[in-house]
Structure prediction request, 290 residues.
Amino acid sequence: MASQGHYGAGGGTKQGIYVCTPEGKFLTSINSLSGKAVADTLERGLFKWKNEFSGSVASPASTPTPSHRWEWSYPERGLVLKQTARYLSDSQQPLLDRDHRFNFDFVWFNPNEALSFIPLQPEIGMKFDLPKTLLDRFACFHLIETAHGESGIFHRNEVNGKLEGKVIAVQPGSLKIEITGDCRSLSKRKEYRGLPPAKQINIEIHGSFNFNSLNQRFSEFELVAKGRIFNSLDPIDKNTASRSIGWYFTLANPNTPSERLFPTHLHAYGAGWIKQPPLPLYDLGSKRPN
Prediction:
């Protein structure tokens, strides 16, 4: 049905507003930010339905249950973070009116992944390297240029850096850990699934969390990352065009339905605990992330 709409047949996005009969016969469609244009499209579809498909009757769905939803993989006893991304003003790149935008996403870690934030025998002052898999989860799929909308991801072999933990406090049943780190993401690819990633981003990371060792849950988690985006593969110097971007992560509320939404690039996590759809996602010729 959607292939008869404004984007036509073939692969790629089909996003927009579609009007069809209950049987799925296409009437009209549009992809627009204009409320009037959308309203006009709905009116046009209604007119066509009344005049060409007046005998159309809704047929019951074969099943009310979808074959797949990414939310079915929600890590109930893991770590779920809410992410906010926005551009930052600085002396090199003052923000224009169109740059005062921000975007949300979520980061998922299953229980085993979440526990890898915790050292085996924590002592006050102890420093330790966090597994690179944790840095990759952030850098590949979340520390990307999404303040304006969508962005391609980085592959694991395009990310270099590390996360370090330091035990700040140890009390009966709880501990507090500080996180610092940095990474550089560099991609020569034109796109991933139709979306180009930034050429290179230099990022510094700071944060901390409180962990309850009795119930094995995080009671607080706060992480801030600041990056500089360079839309060039050239070596970085003072003449290379760039801009600043920031990301903020904090605990999501599991009791709020809108904060149980799946991460935008969950399909690319490559984790075995994530339930995949019964039919493979279409491929735009890009390889699976390394």
About this structure: The CA atoms of residues 83 and 152 lie 17 Å apart.
